[in-house]
Amino acid sequence: MMNEGWTSVVFNNRDPVYLQVVRHxxxxxxxxxxxxGQVIPSRRELGALLxxxxxTAQKAYKEMEEQRLIITEGNSPSRITEEAAILRAIRxxxxxxxxxxxxxxxxxxxxxxxxxxxxxxxxxVEERARTNQAEExxxxxD
Amino acid sequence: xxRYLKLVNMEIHRFRYILASLMVVTLLSQCGSxxxxxxxxxxxxxxxxxxxxxxxxxxxxxxFPWAIVNTKVWFILPIxxxxxxxxxxxxxxxxxxxxxxxxxxxxxxxxxxxxxxLYVSKLTAILTFVFSMIAFQLVLLxxxxxxxxxxVPAGMRTDSTFVEASTIIPVLDTLLPKQFEQFIYxxxxxxxxxxxxxxxxxxxxxxxxxxxxxxxxxxxxxxxxILSPFILGLDRSNSYWYPSEIYxxxxxxxxxxxxxxxxxxxxLLRKKITV
Amino acid sequence: xxxxxxxxxxxxxxxxxxxxxxxxxKGQITCLIGINGAGKSTILKAIMGLTPLKSGxxxxxxxxxxxxxxxxxxxxxxxxxxxxxxxxxxxxxxxKDFYRNWNDVRANELLAFFKLDRTERVGNLSKGMAAKxxxxxxxxxxTDYILMDEPFSxxxxxxxxxxxxxxxxxxxxxxxxxxxxxxxxxxxHLIDQAVLLQNGSVQLAFDCEEMRTTEGKSxxxxxREVYTG
Lengths: 142, 275, 229
Fold this sequence. Notes:
The complex is a heterotrimer. Chain A is mostly helical. In chain A, 62% of the residues lie in helices and 3% in strands. Chain A has helices at residues 17-30, 43-50, 54-66, 84-107, 113-141, and strands at 70-71, 79-80. The model of chain A has no long low-confidence stretch (mean pLDDT 83). Chain B is mainly alpha-helical. Chain B has 2 domains: 1-176, no CATH class; 177-275, no CATH class. Chain B contains 10 helices and no strands. The radius of gyration of chain B is 23 Å and the shape is globular. Chain C is α/β, with parallel strands linked by helices. Chain C has one domain (2-228): 3-Layer(aba) Sandwich (Rossmann fold). In chain C, 31% of the residues lie in helices and 27% in strands. In chain C, a hairpin with a 2-residue loop joins strand 1 and strand 2 (14-24). Chain C is globular, with a radius of gyration of 17 Å. The mean pLDDT of chain C is 91. At the B-C interface, helix 1 and helix 5 of B face helix 2 of C.
């Protein structure tokens, strides 16, 4: 169960690995795969799951603790925060940063806003339908 | 001490098949040729054939030393073979750790004990092989004597002592000295020889191409120092030195060579050896 | 901390190491990167006291190289160091006999993890299996530091994956790891520190995450700049 969504992480080499780990956690939270209050793997387990060195896992956990994304109380295992405000902020942060980079690249082409929004809507619906189908197809085989 | 014994044990373990082979070869060669030689004469005597008819000497009575002398080549050959193998192995015992798919020397040099223990354990192993072969030859001689008595009818043989048998050919005489003093000389020189070989090998392993020259130079120097008292005239009656003085010099030379070689070997292992 | 200070070495008239200096910290994975013949293996051998130096100094936790350090630093060369006639179990017994820091429980775990057969003869191991066996002998020593020479080189893909897994476990954690490689690809995310070696000296040494944070460059980007720029 723990393995779900962990082994498929592909890192790029130019961004700090620990920040990519943090980002991965945020994505999991935003999509609901990680729930508020859910226990997360220990840093040792995480290192093994993501095939990164334990120092990097440690650094990622420290960063997430600083951002109050996860909570570690005494010797008990770390959990995802239950603060609704933080969880909401994650979602909007991810959307905002994705839209930002989209806007930066599309700005160069200088498209009218309406045309762009139409195109986005069609593409997005198509893409979501396709990936949903693929996921269902995948789960049948499991 | 424990680690030293474990290393010695391991070295012996690695050589066990070759040592056993040498023993088997010696046994087969000596006993086989002995039986053949004795049988030939005994059957000729039984048939009453003369020397002219068979083409070899038929003595009036057979003795064990006579049998050894007459099987000479097949008796000595395995001994010489064993000596050659052991001398060569004095070098191979080091080189085998450097060459091949697995370079054991990495592990040996990384053991958390002083490196001279390696040197001493390899030396101990070689000496163990030598004395094992000697002990085996002694037992074998006793066995061969019994074999001789079984084959030759009592009426055809004369009895002999063990010493007569073991001194009849020079190789045996050197390997099985009758006096303790002689034993010390023979094996003392032998041990010095092995130590010099070890140090020469370590010189080569430390300095590689240049090391070959060092090794040859060093070995030559050692031989020179050992022989120098003789050159001074041990065998000349008109020498300036008394024989007892030359004897002392020789002893000093041997001692010097041993100490220098061992110290040099230890130092090379500690500071200069390279994998 | 392993300190390599201004180390020089010549071999057959060539300057193999020409003033190499760097450090490898405990609890960090440090990678010596350089093309074949850059002197990477020589540095590891020198740290282990397996080859003499012309000049310079090597210190491990402020102590010079000597027999006592072999309980503190383990070395995994890129080839076998157990006699080929021994069985795997005999090779392990040998280690157990000589090292006080030997961890037999871990050795057994690793035998199972690497799927090694203890009755097999060392000489019959495939290249990948031999690499795993060497790693087992190194990792089963409870040492503060472990040195590995090209742990991923010349072995099959699946063996590489299994060996890479070791780096993200507690087998490595808290130790200082110093490894060499001539190709970084498998290991980008595994290493903490990179030391780039060229022509017998250190061209650049850096913290990988710091390099990504401050300059947005991967280790390969930096290598490209150093080796071709």
